Amino acid sequence: MHYYLVDAFAERAFAGNPAAVVILTDPVPDDVMQGLALETNLSATAFVRKQGNVYTLRWFSSTTELDLCGHATLASAHVLWEEGVLSQNQTVTFDTKSGILTARKRDDHIEMDFPLETPWATEYPKEMRDALNVDPVYIGRNRFDYLVEVKSEDIVKNTVPDLDVCRKIDCRGIIITSRTQNGSHDFISRFFAPRSGIPEDPVTGSAHCALGPYWSQKIGKPELIGYQASRRGGIVKVFVTDDKAILGGKALTVARGKFLI
User: Fold this and answer.
1) pLDDT class for 183, splitting at 50, 70, 90?
2) Which helix (H) or strand (E) holds 30?
3) Residue-wise pLDDT tens digits, 77-134
């Protein structure tokens, strides 16, 4: 099985979020996919297999299968085009645990149609207060994550969560976010998901399915640029429509290899 290591939502190598993409010709047992994801030890390893006119796409962290993953979807589409499996002008249709997702080339980046995961207001759980030790402007959540808005980007950048406490909170992950003073971006964020085997995710496309509609309503415009302030850092473009979040970003392949199993 051949695999590709791709930096997604990246402007350069060693930035953005690295994902492994495995192109399958035959079905592979779930335990093998989970074992390979543990072997790569990345926040997501994607498994892509052609079935008719669509590609099945599954994502695994080192510990569990994921329900939705933006950066590994971006990486998978990038590989299909770069390796000549699809022509540059073809739209990629993925069949996933979150339904049909599509990706297409748009100038120098890739656009993906993702579901809106708009957060609703909720209370600040004691465990999260203990884990983050921040005073929130807003607390929301959706079916996956909590979203915590704080007063400044310095708070976002300097927060050091207690990951052991975060792991006890009943959610996929925690988004912490604020407006930014950088004129190139509309908002800044970080994402912690130790319960899913991801202490801090470098750049989280699916979190922007919540960040997009949240900041779009708050700022008053549908087209936004988010910066995820992890150590690697990355940029996610978001265009919010009535029924979806169109995510945009760049990707580049940094390695190719083969699993000898």
Assistant:
1) confident
2) helix 30-40
3) 999 999 999 999 999 999 999 999 999 999 889 999 999 999 999 999 999 999 999 9
Residue 109, strand partner residues: 106
pLDDT at 261: 84
Statement to judge: residues 13 and 106 lie in one domain = yes
Mean pLDDT of the 221-240 span: 97
Cα 41–Cα 46–Cα 50 angle in degrees, nearest 5 = 155
90-105 as b/e, with b when 16 or more CB fall inside 10 Å? eebebbbebeebbbbb
Please check whether residue 112 is in contact with residue 81, taking contact to mean a CB–CB distance below 8 angstroms: no
**Residues 63 and 103 occupy one common structural domain:** yes
Quote the CA–CA distance of 222 and 224 in Å, as a whole number: 6
68 and 125 in a single domain? The answer is no
Are 140 and 214 a contacting pair, CB within 8 Å? yes
Number of independent structural domains in the chain:
2
The tokens of 189 are what?
Answer: 């964020």
The set of residues, in sequence order, having a beta carbon less than 8 Å from that of 237 and lying 6+ positions away, is 109, 223, 224, 225, 226, 247, 248, 249
* CATH number assigned to the domain comprising residue 156: 3.10.310.10
